[in-house]
Amino acid sequence: MDKFRIVGGTPLSGQLAVSGSKNSALPALAACLLTDEPVVLRRVPNVKDISTMRELLEYAGARVRDEEGRVRVHAKTLDRPEAPYEVVKTMRASSLVLGPLVARTGRARVSMPGGCAIGARPINFHVSALEQLGARIEQAHGYVEAQAPEGLRGGPIHFDRITVTGTEDVLMAAVLARGETVIRNAAREPEVKDLADLLTAMGAKIQGAGTSIIRVQGVERLHGAEHTIIPDRIEAGTFLLAAAISGGDVTVTECCPEHVAALTTKMELAGAEVDLAATDALRVRCARRPKPIDVTTEEYPGFATDLQAQYMAWMTLAEGISFVTETIFENRFMHAPELARMGASIRIEGRQAIIAGREQLLGAQVLASDLRASASLVLAALVARGESVIDRVYHMDRGYERIEEKLAAAGANIERVQARDL
Ligand code: EPU
Question: Nearest to residue 286, comparing CAs of 262, 250, 239, 325?
């Protein structure tokens, strides 16, 4: 099992380029199931979760090919509209194929995702929204089985709570449903808008994506299209925080500054200098310890839960006490005890972490528990005195493309090692 060995203390400098968004590419790949014509996606990141989604598409019967840095999906026929447990258990976002499969073929059999390190994460909202569109759904033997032999019909959907992949799943179903669907309390994340842009390029009729009310006029069929995935705002935010925590001077390129505005506002309040270096680049400089600035995670455009762990790593070095409140997931503080192994002082009280900033962190052996927790440990290790070894970096590989190469090119002392090399 791979680990990262990091020796802290070097301020990052130069440029860090952002890849395409994992959480946009996942629904975009699922959307390719909605047409029998080829769809070409540019800027799909080469990360583990994407290979998993590609596996799911192929399992259902689609052909997936790499073509000069682009991914071409051709779902000419779908003989097996299913997502098996073996694949779904490794990636919860597998439930994104439920909506497209039932909309396109009239049936779908998708394994229910189990628990997850950051919370229970059920898919009940996906299921009830699809039922609103006329799918008959049964849950048995760990699978969700959906039937709509006569096709889906549009209708009103009101999510009890904002759900990102739930909104995406039902949006993909609604584009092929008869009549109008209105999705209320929809997620406003840029990834939802990106999906709607792809679906529109495929011939769908969608209004309001990016707001909390999305209107869809169903069409009979969709056609092929080409689409470029938006930049990964969570990778961009991770890089901005990596630059700041290391006391560096870095330009984060190929990003969308507006998508990380909630983070950059907090970073400036905490004392980092963040400047627009180009329409798609942000320069960040931070020469001293941050001021303690509280954050509360929220749905977009609020502060992203996917950046909470990385931000907390920075606050462990603040000149005072800060509060980090997690409102999206019930168990997303698994990085706190690992950061404590590096000398951080963090007390967890329910949904709140109370962090007493320290002058320095010390390198240690730590364990990554999930994707963003592993990113927070890498950030802490970049500034900790001495060597850190981060175990279970397969979590990191799920969502960050060549992270150690990118950070090393900006001056970080980081290497990937096999357990036997240690
Ligand atoms: N929820 C339910 N029932 C549902 C769906 C969601 O109770 O049917 C709850 C969840 O348990 C959670 C809250 O609603 O407490 C919000 O979850 P949401 O459905 O929005 O999360 P998701 O769609 O499963 C996506 C991202 C996550 C990101 C969250 C929140 C993808 C593939 N995943 O998950 O990304 O944290 O939205 O922004 O888009 C990551 O990349 O590390 C990651 C976990």
Answer: 250
